[in-house]
Amino acid sequence: MYHPFSIAETTKSAWTIFKKNFVTIIVYSTISFTIISLLRFITEYLSPEEFTYTMALSFVAVFVQAYTTLGLYKLIFTVMDSEYYEFEFRQVLPAFKNIVSYLGVIFFIAFVITTFSIAMTKLDSYPYLQQLIGEIAVITALYFALRIMFFITYIVDDKSGGFESLKQSFQLTKGYFFKVFVMLCIILLFIALPAGLSQYPGLGFFGIAIIFTYPFVNIILAVTYRKLVYSHQDVDDDIAETN
Question: What does pTM read for this prediction?
């Protein structure tokens, strides 16, 4: 039976998936966290101060980051769809095409932000105008961030191209802006809370919580995506049964 999109039900479904597949997801998250941390350590402390070497290592780090991110989503969708049958390890490996699509979107967003930042420096002589444009830009950026936040799920689940995934995310969030905003706030809370607590003396161990909170918030995002798809299609919203 069709059910309207529900924030409470979506969060509950995400928690259920996380609990049922806790070991699998945490092992993947820990391995990914270790690899990325090792690459950052090498880049910051062990790499020679040579431009070509630094750029090559940075590209490897970006590629690994993309691979582990898409791999996590691939794992999440696989455990969601494979609740009643076994799945193989190769099923959670992201395709090279997906990585290219993901990086294309990331580099495009980075280009837009960099171009805007450079343009804003031209207004240093007009601080009030600069502040006004900056405030408008923040609101606009938040709006677009909400509308395109599901582009990764489309790249992984629907094998969409980069710009196609942005368009699909815009269509998916149509009519659900405020509910998606609440889901984003929940996601940010799970990320910001342990990060904030880890800054206090004696609470640094909260920083390691990212190994648990990061995969969970991505499960929330994946379940929200699936629930919204079902709401638009007017079909049964059983996560494990519908694809």
Answer: 0.85
**Where are the chain's structural domains?**
7-232
Burial class (CB in 10 A: 0-12, 13-18, 19+), 151: buried
Number of C-alpha atoms within 13 angstroms, CB side, residue 23? Answer: 0
3 vs 7, 12, 57, CA distance in Å?
A: 12, 15, 48
Q: pLDDT (tens digit, 0 to 9) for every residue of the chain, 243 residues total?
A: 455 778 888 999 999 999 999 998 999 989 988 888 888 887 777 666 666 777 777 888 889 999 999 999 999 999 888 765 566 667 778 899 999 999 999 999 999 999 999 999 988 888 899 999 999 999 999 999 999 999 999 999 999 999 999 999 999 999 888 989 999 888 888 888 777 777 777 766 677 788 888 899 999 999 999 999 888 776 555 555 444
Cα–Cα distance measured from residue 39 to residue 42, given in angstroms and rounded to the nearest whole number: 5
| Residue among 229, 115, 228 nearest 179 (CA) | 228
Residues in contact with 43: Cβ distance below 8 Å, sequence separation at least 6, in sequence order: 54, 57, 58, 61
The token pair at 143 is 């709006």
What sign results for the dihedral spanned by CA atoms 142, 18, 208, 186? Answer: positive
Structure tokens at 67: 């691979």
- Of 179, 172, 148, the C-alpha closest to 6 is 179
